[in-house]
Amino acid sequence: MSDPTITRMETNGPADTGMVEWDPIDPATLESGEPVQRGHLYFNDESLGLMAGVWDCTANVGKMEPYAVHEFMHVLEGSVTMVLEDGSEETISAGEAFVIPKGLVCQWKQPEYMRKYFVIFDDASGAVTKTADLQVFRPRGDDSVTPADITDTSQFIGDIPVQGQHEYYVDPTGQFMVGLWDSEAFERPVAPFNRYEMMCILDGTVTMSDDAGNEQVFGAGDVAYVPKDAPYKWKSDEYVRKFYCIFMPAVAAVASSAAE
To answer: Smallest Cα–Cα separation from 57: which of 32, 39, 37?
Structure first.
């Protein structure tokens, strides 16, 4: 396995390979359509049940059944409507994000071509999602945040920023979490990253770099994936807001760890 590193996710997959056609969706799970799906996995660790990537697919309608995984999705093109058991519907369109918990009984109703970024946690522990969490979660970039309690100031260089967080979903194992986060400008030194995280930048600009000084600038609309133990430095000279999807292995899972 290659060394963990900060990765820029691209809407069409890596420039040198793009996305490749994946195996067909099992017809037994479909109500209609003969969808063609393509994708690229930027991260895949079967031992964790964790994967992250970009995916696209032609129109299709799935069967009403329990969702098999915990999944965060950020829609890039097209739309999908999630139909629930009670007949209610949630339509998610390009530019919007959503979370489907494992076990939610729902139907995937996709009337058009769709492209998305995704993070999947295929939890094999048998942990059961709480009834109150069996819903479609809709993170919104303009939602309010709660001031974060920063207990470890040693992670910062210079002034301590004011940061905020709005947590939408935590899976029953406490490892997979999705939320909205913002912060004043700040800098932190290079250190091994303590979690796996997809960051969807909504506002502002940040420079992320590694221990060799390789820098990448991420602005609004950009998406970064940072795996655990990657050498990681954050430097922002302005306010930044992002969606995050974090996986923190159980031995270190702490829901308040979205601070940079």
So the answer is: 37
Assess contact for 100 and 122: CB atoms under 8 A: no
CB contact set of 21 (below 8 Å; sequence gap of 6+):
36, 37, 38
For the stretch 20-61, pLDDT in tens is: 999 999 999 999 999 999 999 999 999 999 999 999 999 999
Residue 16 is classified by DSSP as T
Beta bridge partners of 75: 116
- CATH H superfamily, domain 7-133: Jelly Rolls (2.60.120.10)
Q: How many helices (H) and strands (E) does the chain have?
A: 0, 23
Task: Say whether 33 sits in a helix, a strand or coil.
Answer: coil
Question: Which residues make beta-bridge pairs with 177?
Answer: 170, 246
Q: What is the DSSP string of 63-125?
A: -SEE--SEEEEEEEESEEEEEETTS-EEEEETT-EEEE-TT-EEEEEE-S-EEEEEEEE---S
User: What is the spatial distance between Cα 53 and Cα 119, in angstroms, rounded to a whole number?
Assistant: 7
Q: Does the predicted model carry a pTM greater than 0.85?
A: yes
Q: What is the pLDDT of residues 140-177, one digit of tens each?
A: 999 999 999 998 999 999 999 999 999 999 999 999 99
How far is residue 165's CA from residue 162's CA, in Å, rounded to a whole number? 11
Two structure tokens written together for 13: 């997959």
Residues of the chain with CATH 2.60.120.10: 7-133, 146-252
Considering the domain delimited by 146-252, tell me its CATH architecture. Sandwich (2.60)
Residue 196 · residue 227 · CB < 8 Å: yes
Cβ atoms of residues 106 and 69 within 8 Å = no
